[in-house]
Amino acid sequence: MDSGAVTVARTGTVRGELVLRESGGHYEVISNGVFLMDTRAGESERLLVRAALDAVPPGSRLLIGGLGVGFSLAEAAASPRPAEIVVIEIEPALVGWHRGPLGRFSAGALDDPRVRVVTADIVTWLAGTDERFDAICLDVDNGPDWTVFDTNAQLYGGDGLALLRARLTPGGVLAVWSASASPAYAARLADAVGPVETLAVEVARGEPDVVYLARQKARDRV
Ligand SMILES: C[S@@+](CC[C@H](N)C(=O)[O-])C[C@H]1O[C@@H](n2cnc3c(N)ncnc32)[C@H](O)[C@@H]1O
User: Fold this and answer.
1) One of this protein's Pfam families, by short name (predicted)?
2) CA-CA distance, 93 to 68, in Å (whole number)?
3) pLDDT of amino acid 106
4) Residues 6+ apart with CB under 8 A from 206
5) Pocket of ligand 1, candidates 37, 64, 71, 104: which has the most ligand atoms within 8 Å of its Cβ, to mutate?
6) Is the pLDDT of residue 143 over 90?
7) How far is the CA of 213 from the centre of ligand 1 (A)?
8) 41-220: which CATH number, 1.10.10.10, 3.40.50.1370, 3.40.225.10, 3.40.50.150?
9) Ligand 1 atom with least separation from CA of 71
């Protein structure tokens, strides 16, 4: 976290406090004391979407888990490839901040007619929908081993992986963002979904960011 940053918005939620801080024209989002995302980089968050879209045909349906500062959504909306982009974001206040200070980072994508933003917990939303997607991009935590909320841990275990796989179209891809490598998760992902490609992005601070890209196994195709 930037110690010189000033708080520009703060809201209480049932999950704790959500804070938006600004420093030098950049913003950071803190959820219940845990750093979630800032606007300084974004390369791996864009790669998450680009790698997934490169793996599916034009006209595809894309699901993005976690709006954050909007880098992933902006990357998706900049591409002609997806016909539909559904974003699931748990924090209504954060969606509202994209009508204000974060708007330049999502680059108007919320007004793209292909985009639908749903304010919901993706864990419960996935369990309650029968929608299917050609690509699912999951970036709601700092990674499978460092979740923002305890309940998000469900997404990375066997039941969560089965839920995500069930929401893929035949041959669809699941891309998962992580702030550090997680070989155990990659193995679970390969087992539950299909062959995994691991993409690493060097970052200024510490360990590279990682994007895991899994393509659904042939046995799941119908
Ligand atoms: C690391 S940020 C996403 C970064 C995003 N890829 C970007 O480009 O800015 C994680 C986002 O997921 C949201 N989130 C966390 N848990 C969630 C959940 N269970 N369901 C939906 N959204 C969630 C957070 O509020 C936050 O906006």
Assistant:
1) Spermine_synth
2) 11
3) 97
4) none
5) 37
6) yes
7) 18
8) 3.40.50.150
9) 8
Does the pLDDT of residue 156 top 70, yes or no?
yes
Q: What are phi and psi of 150, to 5 degrees?
A: -55, -40
Q: Which residues line ligand 1 (CB under 6 A)?
A: 31, 36-37, 45, 65-72, 88-91, 94, 121-123, 139-140, 148-149, 152
- Round to whole Å and give the CA distance between 100 and 212: 32
38, 134, 139, 141: which one is catalytic?
Answer: 139
Alpha-carbon distance of 167 to 164, in angstroms, equals: 5
More confidently predicted of 61 and 204: 61
Q: What is the mean pLDDT of residues 150-166?
A: 97
Å from CA of 97 to ligand 1 middle: 14
Is 121 tagged catalytic? no
* pLDDT per residue as tens digits for the range 11-53: 999 999 999 999 999 999 999 888 899 999 999 999 999 999 9
Q: What is the pLDDT of residues 144-153, one digit of tens each?
A: 999 999 999 9
